[in-house]
Fold:
Amino acid sequence: MVASLLPAAAIAESPSEVIDLPTITVEERPVLPERETWQHANIPGFEILSNASDGATRRIVRDFQRFHQALVTVWPPAEVRASLPTLLVLCGRDRAFAAFAPEAANPDATGFISRSGSDGDVSAIVLDLETTSLGLLSVDALAGPEPPAPEGEEVEAGVLSGLPDFAVSPYEQLYREYLRLVLSRAQPRAPIWFEEGLAQIFMRMEFSSTTITVGRVEDPNTRSLRPGMVEDRDFNAALQRRALLSMEELFAVTPDDPAARRPLGGVWAKQAYAFVHLCLYSGDTALQKGLLTFVRRLAAEPPSETLFRSCFGRGYDEMRQAIRAHVDLTRVKAVQFRLKKGERREEPPEPVFRAATQGEIGRIKSDALRLCGQNEAARIALLAAYLRGERDPALLAAFGLEEVASGRRERGLRLLEAAARANVVRPRAYLQLARLRLADALAKGGGTGAILTETDLAPILQPLATARRQPPAQFEWYEILTAAWSHAAALPPPAQLAVLDEGVRLFPTRSAWLLEVAQLKRRSGQFTEAAAIADFGIRTARDPALREAFTAFRSELPTAPAPANDPKQAAAPSPEPPRP
Structure:
């Protein structure tokens, strides 16, 4: 299947020319940070960088391995294996976490001991092992201590405590960040309130060598073991005598909102937990069905009380009252998984730590910093390693991607060419290389209307073929392939169109791209498939201009087959199953 991506001109072995790596001029050299000492290890699915003590590092990694093992047992989709493992950066001394935190001037700068991010190519979790408590202040608390609520009355929804000490567990936050990353990879992505609710349920999963229990909640009358501190407790304790948000407010939060980015101490996060738990673990099968239907339909429709009522059979106010009842008198039907008598889960393999190279430190820190929004610091981390003589392919690929993103196109291209020639494992590097070559071919041919020959296509499809062998499946892969064949003089072979059908199934919400696929299908004579995609776009595109474009395209087709409910029905099955 991979070979079928290439025309005959591209199958011959590439010449083994030497690529000159770029030189950084004196004027471009920043003040480099001092050399750092970190430990490095690989475990299945994760690449770890830690400057914490050996004991602290091993304890949290071993605990996370056991958690991950139990999680995959009860929820197999959590076993996300990609060509690039998730980066896990453990900051245990010298205030190393401060480099990844938001700027102090940012109102979101407090309330973090963990950060995470993903761009579809690489994922990272950064954890602060030095901090054991946070000061979480509500707007009211800034004016002074919050007076206790009168007996039986609720206090305003917002931050759960105005006390300066909120106890935090790096172990639980690592669970939460990983779960949120796993959930965010779903296509189409689920609403953030659903992700947060599921994350809190599974991060509180109880597990041993013989049993795993999901859905159980604490006794709300249990007293804290840390007097003077507020702890991150289950919803039935955290929301006692707290006013709940309206359902409109709960559903309005987006992944970039402060409530989602700083879930510690917030009513929104606990109410999301309570709502999802009520639907999944209260024993009400009608609520389970309603929740799953609601989440599925939200992929194509905005939230509304009309949609909500059609899924649950009740309105927003009734559900808010049901959540309040679930908080005050929690009904739980937990799920327990027990191994057969005499069986025990095997211990995961012991991680092997060694001193990290400067190239590993620069690459891992740079990717993590970039995903945390610290772009300048990310580039400096790569520059420091490069200027110190590091030339491993993974570093060159990361540096090349960074240079292209920063507008240093030619330098980035040379770095990416060198990394690709060294067979680097980094799908995004090959995708960016293909995109740059496509742009060059179009510019050479006179612009976006250029017609590409087989010779023009070969260097574009070659890196795409390599990226195809390096999962996970990325939207950009299908996007670039579509653009290349849309400008080709020749028609794509049937195998190529089948590969695009795979992309349609994986990324049905990318409406603008779906229109390009439909146009390519029409050009190739696959009118039934083109009509099915157009009908789907007319129903699901949220941009009115795109809906009009789909409608106009549909009216111009030479045949008018009956509308299909889903483009999947008309798309030819892929000869190779989608990669996870």
The radius of gyration is 26 Å. The CA atoms of residues 209 and 345 lie 5 Å apart.
